[in-house]
């Protein structure tokens, strides 16, 4: 979908092997600094409704959700069952490769909010994923995509690696726009001083849809 909007080889990767092999071993580490994690948690605290149903997309062993927040449902979708099983915030999880199948395995309008933390750079079919995100979020619901500058360089798409942070934020906005069905996406710069940068790109599904 919308491949003509990107240069040739934009979504190629240095390591084009099966992602299931790469993610077979659990990596129980965080990928941004503690201050940046705290900044992301603060954004979630501001923007995620209490007692809502949340989808943690491309999840791992930690979701960075506010520790005091209570959600009705927190579904995790990721690539490693051991990581997901260790995540105390998840009420359920599924192992699912979005590069192999970008359609999310959930019903229409299942979630009030979707979060994705520093993982969007690994998507090879992001526009299809963002369209599926729109399908599974409720009218009026929100999707938040957090980006920083760290990555697994062999698995991040080449186009992402060629961009600076500001252009990466614009790229994620473009994903929302190409997917269709979202309100105009907005960008927050919540980068802490002397820590990893943090940009959060978010968009709502229109309430009337």
Note down, in words, how this protein is organized:
The chain contains 6 helices and 7 strands. The protein is of the alpha/beta class. It has a single domain (3-204), classed as Rossmann fold. Strands 3-2-1-4-5-7-6 form a 7-stranded mixed β-sheet, sandwiched between helices. Helix 4 crosses helix 6 (165-179). The protein starts with 18 loop residues before the first helix and ends in a 5-residue tail after the last strand.
Determine Rg (CA atoms, Å): 16 Å
The overall strand count is 7
Could you give a short account of the major beta sheet?
7 strands, mixed
Query: What is the straight-line distance between the termini?
Result: 22 Å
Q: How many distinct helices? A: 6
Note poorly predicted spans: none
CATH class: Alpha Beta
Proportion of residues in extended strands: 15-25%
CATH architecture, please? 3-Layer(aba) Sandwich
Q: What's the helical proportion of residues?
A: 25-40%
Q: Order of helices and strands, N to C? A: HHEEHEEHEHHEE
- In the sheet with the most strands, the strands line up as 3-2-1-4-5-7-6
Q: In the residues, how many domains can be counted?
A: 1
Secondary structure class reads alpha/beta
**Shape category:** globular
